[in-house]
Amino acid sequence: MRHFYTFPFRYARTKATQPTLLSTRVTTLAAFCSLPTRTPTLNSTLNPLGTNLTTTQSFHTTRAAGWVAPWKRRQSPAQPYELVKRHPMVQSESSRGALNYTGRAALLFGMAGCFSVIMLAGLVYSVMDYVGNDMAPVDDRIKNPGRMYLISAAIRDLVLPDTQSALNYLKEASKVLAKSSESDDAKIDSSKEATGTKLEPGDPALIELYLRMGELLDQQGQWMEAFKGYQLVYNAYFNNPKFWAQLAKAYWGEHPTLAFPNSDGQADTTLTTQQHLMKTILATQVGAVLLRTEAYAEAKDYLGKGLQNLQQLDNNLSNSDGNASVWHTWIRQSGRWVRYDIHDLHFLELRLIHTLAEAHALQGDLDTAYTLYKEALNRLTRYRAQRQQALKLGQISLDTIDTVPWHWRLINRYLMREQIALSPFFTPATASQYLSNREQYVPRDQDELPQWQDPRPIDNWACLDAQWMDRLGELSYGLGRREEAERWFQEALTLSDTSDVIPACAACASVVLGHMAVLAEKHCQPREARIYWQSATGKAEEAEDLPRVIYCQSQLDRLRQRPTSQ
Questions:
Q1: Residue 4: count of CB within 10 angstroms of its CB
Q2: Which residues, listed in sequence order, are joined to residue 399 by a DSSP beta bridge?
Q3: Which one, 261, 271, 453, 506, has least CB within 10 Å?
């Protein structure tokens, strides 16, 4: 009997979690015997009838009643363990909070959506921070909402080009930043509802905003409105001595966001350089706008002041101890820092001479215009040789179509576009027809211009000599020198055909061929004129210049409809 008593306890010690407790051993023994769990007396237990039996009697009585030991019981292979059925209420309570497959998928999609929103918000913040602090830094005095308007305008101007959207953002910024509209000629609304930073009328940040608005209006062809914005900037540059002190304070003083970018330590940081250079650029822009509004006398006055400032800057550089070949500086233009070297100054000088020659030609002073263009062509040859030497030495590098500032592309664009509809050449009697004929074919928005997205390095000096030779041909014919005009046209066509740097070269060749066609038609050579117009149409198609294609094709159709005998 010792084995009977010790075996259940040994089993309990190996399977139970707490074998040292007496109640656990008793419960295990009761489960083993399939009897009610009551605490037995010594050497006795309870039978199913509730009477006391000795241990020997209980054991034999249970075996005789058909009791089977647990280790001998047979279980079904399909259901190895008996499932406990619960009440439906108990089942629903136990399954509460569990996720099925649909819930898990929804949770995963929700987590992915939250992560995407966070990543997108971080990307937007990074772009806005980069534009507002690096690409087009905003004065740290300007707070929201004016700051957000300026950053949005820079994005629409530099990242996602749209001149009208950028202009709208700048107008909203001007409403917020303008402190009073009493002395504001641009009719800037400073409503009481506008909140944010308020600036004085002559503050450098506000003057820069007017300059950017003028440049965008200039690009869109709204020249009278652009002149109003330029005039505010011109008064600050030339007639407000306090402006330059405030500008120096903003660049090198209390506002680190607009810090002068002099990382190499070799940039010219003198305020005198800033004054002469900014005045020269502004005079060039104002003179070009006035030229398109037929205010020739005022245009020549502004252009003359620009040449004077540029000449004084050149004299200062010549008298300085530094090397002019590696000289460079930075100025704030179009809301961002723009680097200028000595070759950019040469290009600016050529542009000034070109615009001044245009003003003289449109007034009928063809001799002066011819002299200025000849001088510009000679200087271009000399400056280009210096520039090629700098390229070989690695002092400068060529830009791409995306990095060339728009104000450097303006000269090529207007030189090409202004010659499209010039049917009679420059003569004193027909010079006034020049602008009215040209306006029909010049697009009002830069988005309508040919989109030359070429990642190759380009030289924005490439087409200047060909374009100016074509101009000299027009002036020569206006002065009655036909043979000289034909020679200039042929040289211009040869250069534009051999350059082929960007599609603008094909467009320039189309313009020259058109002038040669007009010259042939005026001297009763319709067959040669048709050949020239056909070649001009092909060059315009090569350049993807739709307005030019339409114009050349119309001239070709006109000649084809004429009798062959003429």
A1: 10
A2: 458
A3: 453
For the stretch 100-109, contacts whose Cβ atoms lie closer than 8 Å and that sit 24 or more positions apart, written own/partner, are none
- Reference 550, options 518, 510, 495; nearest CA is 510
- Signed CA dihedral, 263, 266, 269, 273: sign only: negative
Q: Can you tell me the distance from the alpha carbon of 136 to that of 196, in angstroms, rounded to the nearest whole number? A: 20
DSSP letter at 449 equals S
Q: How far is it, in rounded angstroms, from Cα 559 to Cα 518?
A: 11
What is the number of alpha carbons within 13 Å of residue 311 lying toward its C-beta?
Answer: 8
Please check whether residue 418 is in contact with residue 438, taking contact to mean a CB–CB distance below 8 angstroms: yes
List CB contacts of 314: < 8 A, sequence separation 6 or more.
345
Please state the φ and ψ torsions of residue 339, each to the nearest 5 degrees: -85, 135
Q: Report which of residues 32 and 261 the model is more confident about.
A: 261
Sign of CA dihedral 183, 187, 192, 194: negative
Domains within the chain, CATH numbers bracketed? 1-63 (no CATH), 133-183+200-259 (1.25.40), 267-400 (1.25.40), 418-445+475-566 (no CATH)
What average pLDDT does this structure show over 508-523? 86
50-81 residue pLDDT tens:
445 454 555 555 555 556 566 655 555 555 54
DSSP state of 96: T
Helix 271-292 with 241-252: angle, nearest 10 deg: 120
Are 273 and 313 spatial neighbours (Cβ–Cβ below 8 Å)? yes
Count of CA atoms in the C-beta half-sphere (13 A) of 527? 2
Looking at 54-63, 137-146, 224-233, 492-501, which range is the least confident one?
54-63
- DSSP string spanning 151-200? HHHHIIIIIS--HHHHHHHHHHHHHHHBS-STT-TT-----TT--S--B-
Closest CA to 217 of 232, 228, 207, 201: 228
- Angle among Cα 237, 138, 145 to the nearest 5 degrees reads 110
CA atoms within 13 A on the CB side of 499: 25
Q: Which is it for the CA torsion 255, 404, 244, 167, positive or negative?
A: negative
- Helices 223-239 and 204-220: crossing angle in degrees, nearest 10, is 150
